[in-house]
Amino acid sequence: MILPRILILVCLFSSCVSFPLIQDKLNSYTKQKHLRTISRISLPPDPAPEAVSPSYNVDSASNITTFNVQSFGAIGDGVTDDTQAFKMAWDTACLAEKSGILLVPEGYSFMIQSTIFTGPCKSGITFQIDGTIMPPDGPDSWPIKSSKKQWLVFYRIDGMSLQGGGVIDGRGEKWWNLPCKPHKAPNGKTLPSVCDSPVAIRFFMSSNLTVRGLIVKNSPKFHLRFDVCQYVDIELLNINSPAQSPNTDGIHIENTKNVKIYNSVISNGDDCVSIGAGCYNVDIRNITCGPSHGISIGSLGIRNSQACVSNITVSDSVIRHSDNGVRIKTWQGGLGSVSKVTFHNIYMDTVRNPIIIDQYYCLTKNCPNQTSAVTISDILYSNIKGTYDVRSPPMRFACSDSLPCANLTLSEVELLPIKAKVVSNPFCWNAYGTMQTLTIPPVFCLLDGIPQSMQQNDSAGCQTTWTG
What we know:
Elements: H1 5-13, E1 57-59, E2 64-68, E3 77-81, H2 83-95, E4 100-104, E5 109-111, E6 115-118, E7 125-129, E8 132-134, E9 150-155, E10 158-163, E11 167-169, H3 173-176, E12 199-204, E13 207-212, E14 215-217, E15 224-227, E16 230-235, E17 238-240, E18 251-254, E19 257-267, E20 273-275, E21 279-289, E22 295-300, E23 306-320, E24 324-330, E25 335-351, E26 353-358, E27 375-388, E28 395-398, E29 405-417, E30 427-429, E31 431-435, H4 452-455, H5 462-467
Parallel strand pairs: 2-4, 3-5, 4-7, 5-8, 6-9, 7-10, 8-11, 9-12, 10-13, 11-14, 12-15, 13-16, 14-17, 15-18, 16-19, 17-19, 18-20, 19-21, 20-22, 21-23, 22-24, 23-25, 24-26, 25-27, 26-28, 27-29, 28-30, 29-31
Antiparallel strand pairs: 1-2
């Protein structure tokens, strides 16, 4: 759902083939000592810790200053609350005239509370995680006044790298086991209660971001989320949580443009990558995904909202042992459009729904039929091969009665059942498109031409959003 910006602000502050992954371990930096006694992020609940010495280190060759969190009082024993030390280290680096490195040293585990790291900063910051950072252990340990919707937030940052060879451990198990979670409810029925769970890492209204080389695991909810951001480079990440962990999307982007997600391994309990409304110019390449729910655009158009998504490419990737492969999902009643999407050179290994478009997405059996829809057009499936779980057809195009899918193109698609000897037929409903080559199985159910409704459609006002 797209919330008005003011509500987003309130929410923010309210509390196949295998492709080689380059796993270069980034160099650790020397421990240094420096101190600022006041954080401008928020006033500390207790007196700020005192440092032994207010010294710092400047690399004479690069003229870059390193700010070690231990110099600001961080203990790193995995038990002591190191939040205030991180806040002071951030503020010192953020106020520095020249680019600096905020160092989380190797060999230590730092427990920090829900925190917002605020910009803009005077210069770029490298947040170097070589050790481990973790939140409080579960909802019972979460401070009452802290938001249970997010853990670490980076707000209004321009020019930052979150990187290193360390670990961001979300300690999500106790959140996944809340009785309001579907897989833990008795007799399959969820219990009525507040079910907020924190996103591990969130970037909000930020630009020129790099996230590289880290292990991010066991998030209570999404592992990484980007809202209203631009120029985002994500590379060499290892994101993992159990296959049954609910809503643990690996990377989610919303209202975000010019994104590159490369050379990463993602295994989790929901989508490896999910693309929400307002996203365009997104390039996803060389991802090993699964077990998971696949790589998804959507869901879009919930509660009659508008969603505009365009210029999305997913290529050179592997999806294995997943509920879905490449998916586009929209709710009935929505507005807007999904267009200019390419899925190319993807290997499917035992995937239940390798290729799916679902314009009837619904989480219950009681969703009413509605006429309006998010239109879907100009979708290319090229060189997609592998095996599928026979419980579902290998290709499913369930398109709107009023606004059918248009200009679907399939080329070099070969999907075979993992066990059965008979190839299942694809499913089509109001899907218009062509086979450039004979696919396996053949998609003879595609309709020819362009639906009349598409000829009259103006993308529901999305052109302004894409080019603005």
